[in-house]
């Protein structure tokens, strides 16, 4: 499937022993997913760090002449591997999203005549951007290095949680510059830049903030920028439309050496003389709250100018994160895939809180965290599936804090809703469902979240009863959303039904019978959009009849969000047996799944859906997008677990590899990677908020998962190989597992799961 | 001079006894100055209150088709007496300025079909505005009442320091509305509205903020709005340009009953059913810091819905303020003029701090006040002259806090400058000079400001050495500003020279000899722009020669700000004797002054200067603008104090009266009024930062000034009358005053100043 591999990172030698301690960082290739639609970024960051300091290869407008600019989609993470130039290095990036924002505070070092405009990729010499080559580029966890050819500057980046650390090695020049582009950004809507303030405090310290109206409607990012060397001059390019009243600001020359700067569209330059190989370093701290907090974050996290130490501390943090799972895998490529997946599954959500505990809430007020780390950027439609369950397994404290952050969001919400897709003190309500209830319920049911469980249940119930939100009112009244009400009426109904089941599970755990009864009933609503006459989920009209014109293959305009009914008809994760029964039993489901994975579809069937790409498709099965992530595991209930095993291994093999284009679709804030990790280990959380995992086929020979309190859960796959993908027998702590399921409680106590593998299916 | 008196507020009866205790508020007519160019507002406020809740009769754009809209000048305070309609009631207004801003949060109650646009003055029925009549209008301190004819609604307004309190009496209607116009504002520049957030917390509480880029470049006003009765519905009109990406916000109907609102150009409506004569009350609290602080301000200041009590408390505060000076005057008109002047001299600067002590600093950070009340809106070019000296006399604690506020501004200034014209955490640098040094020096020299005097001196010196600011560098280097450097080079040089003298006086007081020497030398720089050959101050070129083309009458393009050289040549308040000597001695100055007050000028000489109006002119003397405010007193040094006495009385009589058009020019944040108060009492601070007042001719029969610590300074004008304007003799505590000057120390100890008045000049 992967016809284009733009470069070969991997030496395909066997690597079938555990990696040495302290050496896992080397297996992380941040470049994976930076080509095509992976939408990952190659730059520097620490685990869940607030700063993602990374090169942007273009910063193009969202719309041109009032029309959507399709090319912008490529730049969700700012970087496209095949681009020839780097515009600069900005401090905030999503990882793997399908819509975007951020790209704040783009910095570019230059030499020669001052150029204040970015220029274009085909004529970089007309702007401050620079050509670069992958030959001169290194991307490691918390370290990025590149030669900027046009300026003869070596750029190196590292970070702490809240501070980006730049190290630029200049040539000898009396015209060395640092550009700070405060107009640049990712997904630059018209008028996205709402307001910008900059204060040049002295000749080495600059503070300010940038307020945007983008995917996050009301967002302010504060900064403090410190130079290792005083600049000799500085200036501002103000690109705002001139006003009739210019005011008494004219009393100053505001373009040059004027320290009190504000406007909508600003760029700045700081000028230096440099000797050959002289380094200019910049510490760039962020804060969600204020400039003074940004200064404090900088002083607390990086009090000196030791770039190497900061790089090492961040890489040590990564090493610690990666060592939570030790693996013995057949090839180095497997190891790289696995640890890069772990890396990608530890980038988001990001810390959104200053070192003093303050953060900006959804209510646009400053809050002080009550004993938890506040996180932001919850892509919940993606991450409730495997990512948050994965954190519950190896990062329970972080996931508990994420639930606490979601509860704070709820407490601050004037809509009284948990987050849908929230970032930077905003909810953008992207995608469908109210899947935070899945994350909340899963974390409480598994004993991870220790906060007020009744308050959490109440938040879930309130969210599920937000009648004005995307058809919820009708869904409550009629048991389904009508096609008249919503263009994604079927997928919404299906997703609400699963979410309702999560609430029911939480209510049951808390002994709230009435809530349980209400929501367990609602969780059956998937049945109301199933059309038995055609054997698919189907849009239903207000009058109860099914929509006439209906295409089971098309992804757009059929009542589903980013998927067709072939994929979405399988979306009853909380009651797959019921779904199967409805479809006509095991054989019918088996045939359905077989068709899904093998049927031939012309390209145009997915051409209209941004988040589904050719690379992410196997037959009609769409791995590159989330709704089908549990589907390969469904053969476990058709009596053909060997098909699950085969399919999972096929997906692991074909949808993930070591190239820059090594992801078959958006990584989606770690969800694609979490799928990889779980499936490689041989199990998957088909229905979060249950305590069950369904078994697949481990791709590791052996793995040790640190499950907390010093305990390890060991997975062994005896005789595992590329051919031996079928499971003969599974023993959990010596006892045979007969139903292809294990429980979370079995894992977190520590223990051993032994798969006996074979080249022959066990039928 | 006052040919147009649009109405008669005054009954011209003798009122030659002290008013009764507790009854001074009745003599304040806030309507004075609301016609023509007084630029005062008639609405409700408490002394120096953060809220000025007042009707706006139009809210017109600053520019039309890219050109300045001259009409906007009329609306500096939002209200023009001769306008037929009221658009609504907004919460922030400057008093008497010549440029403007504010007008935040315009509220209008309406009935009938919902109208979301303001409409026009000639067709009010097309919008939410309403016709009104002065017959149905009452304006008192902290109380404003008007009938809104188009809606049959009685509107009443009162305030506490930080909360506006609206009381609307509706007719019976199922279509009663409260409009909250978040686009409306005073001096509406294009794109002035930067961002607005509104949160409908519940059916009686709304919070939010409004961020503007107007005269204050970066300004945010936060609010909390509470209704006495739940609204039944609400909605938003969003007038923003539609974006290509509409986002998932479309999941909600954002126009109706949607509580999470943000955008650039928003209007809101809240809908009610009302019975006949049903009152809907609104408390509207402001904060410079946050919505939650606004809520706290509201709860602290007005915990209930008792409109009458709040009105009474505010009027009691005014009574207390007014009682600081008791007067016995010949007529009720005099009394109204006097107490209205005291009223106008207690409106600005305004409290800019929450009840918890937090405020937004010039550095855009949140600060907590260290033991002082933070004030904002310092129109220092105006107010350093008589207004701040006036506060030093009767409101020393407030003036000390104002100096503390200016010092906080300095500490937060990235330019390391004291305020020039500052408002709402910004400096707009309007007008010329660095006159905060006069206020600071005056307050320290008079023992008012008890803070760190050395830090204050340092702030003054730093400000005076801000080389990049309006010619200061050249001024320091050459002793004058060249015509090439600045269009107001002469007035700047003159004003800097006076300011430098203030710094010298402060340095002397603090024993800082080197600083004293430096600045006393600089204070002589006025000599460098005096052209002896023509006997006027005159622009000088870079090469030292005087500018060739020069018109001594014209106000524009001649090197002066808002004045001609006839007026400005007298601006050496710190060394009038030196000035007189330079001009050729007493006789020459006397003739000069005589000419000034009597010469005939065609109208067009002042037509180009916004802040100078026909009404404010006596001959070529311009009382309506500030640079000449000390001029009438200069006859004291020509040996003709009787001319000072005559001129002062003439100005008192002709430049101030009880009509809506009763001010001869902008009140300028209390400066015009402070001139009236001082001059009525018989003395004036010709050179603040000296401890001297110059004597004139008291228009009171008697006055008692509370000068603190229970002490009174009593002024008696024996035989004073409209004819007996000449001073025969003056006794200070029984001792004759021979030089027509008294000292501040003489006043604040308490005592008695007796003027013996006569109809005959004492030559």
From TrEMBL, chains A, B:
GO terms for molecular function: carbohydrate binding; peptide-N4-(N-acetyl-beta-glucosaminyl)asparagine amidase activity. One of its GO terms (cellular component) is cytosol. GO terms for biological process: carbohydrate metabolic process; glycoprotein catabolic process. Residues 27-287 form the Glycosyl hydrolase family 92 N-terminal domain. The keyword Signal applies. Its cofactor is Ca(2+). Residues 293-758 form the Glycosyl hydrolase family domain. Keywords: Calcium, Signal. It holds the Pfam family Glyco_hydro_92N. It comes from the Bacteria. Residues 1-19 form the signal peptide. Monomer. This is Alpha-1,2-mannosidase, putative.
